[in-house]
Design brief:
By secondary structure, the protein is of the alpha+beta class. It contains 2 helices and 5 strands. The strands form 2 sheets. Strands 2-1-5 form a 3-stranded antiparallel β-sheet, with no helix packed on it. A two-stranded antiparallel ribbon has the order 3-4. The model has no long low-confidence stretch (mean pLDDT about 80).
């Protein structure tokens, strides 16, 4: 498995390596939201989506609940949207990521599966 990390251009975690992600829209299932956000932010289409963890974080001005998923994509051709300035595929836990992403990586065991 080679997870994708992107450098965020917006808050929270602006200018830090994080994961693509977003909100669940009214009337949308979690599965539908993962597919929509993945395609919108990366251009990738998922073949398989697996929920790997749930966690929360209280930021200075918001409270988020993160539902972490691993995704097997149909291909690896990434086209990031304007919310991100760069991306990289990971083959091990990176050192230069946001602390919340580091916690998600640790709790989900994505590099030991």
């Amino acid at each position: 498995m080679t997870p994708l990390s992107s450098r965020r251009d917006n808050e929270p975690a602006k200018d830090q390596w994080f994961t693509p992600g977003g909100r669940i829209l009214r009337g949308e299932t979690i599965h539908q939201a993962v597919k929509r956000v993945l395609h919108k932010e990366t251009g990738l289409t998922p073949n398989k989506i697996t929920r790997t963890g749930v966690m929360e974080h209280i930021w200075p001005d918001t409270h988020t609940v993160t539902i972490l998923h691993t995704v097997e994509a149909a291909d690896d051709e990434v086209t990031m949207n304007d919310e991100h300035s760069d991306y990289k595929w990971l083959d091990s836990p990176p050192e230069d990521v946001h602390p919340l992403l580091r916690q998600m990586i640790h709790e989900s065991n994505i590099f030991t599966q």
